[in-house]
Amino acid sequence: MVLAAQERGTEWLARGGLRPTRQRLALAALLVGDGEDRHVTAESLYALAGQAGEKVSLATVYNTLRAFCEAGLMNEVVVDGSKSYFDTRMDDHPHFYWEDSATLSDAPADRLRIEGLPDAPDGMQVSRVDVVIRLKRAAG
């Protein structure tokens, strides 16, 4: 089981053209080792790494997540301008942000319709549109 997770992590890093350092391999195995998509914060990944017995600093986790994003392996989803989630699912899709638990999950994309976007300013192009649907418990 662990070997399969390490192999998936190694292949994932290779797709992004990243050198497989010990820390990158450990974090990649935690992120994609089971083949499932994940939404993590740097803090939650740091906690997972600690539970797995990996010696890695929170700063290294932040830097590694940024490197994974720059390599096109993950997307960063910013909530409230201060909270970042990192998503291993790379296709365009909306998210639910669950305010009660401060968690992010995929929302079904088949019902989302964006009718139009404003023109990008001169010299710029739209690279991505992030849709975060905030949820809270209904009153009553």
UniProtKB/TrEMBL annotation:
Intracellular or extracellular location(s): Cytoplasm
Keywords: Cytoplasm, DNA-binding, Iron, Metal-binding, Repressor, Transcription, Transcription regulation, Zinc
GO biological process: negative regulation of DNA-templated transcription; regulation of secondary metabolite biosynthetic process
Annotated GO MF terms: DNA-binding transcription factor activity; transcription cis-regulatory region binding; zinc ion binding
Gene Ontology CC terms: cytoplasm
Subunit structure: Homodimer.
PANTHER family: FERRIC UPTAKE REGULATION PROTEIN, ZINC UPTAKE REGULATION PROTEIN
Protein name in UniProt: Ferric uptake regulation protein
Organism: Paragemmobacter kunshanensis
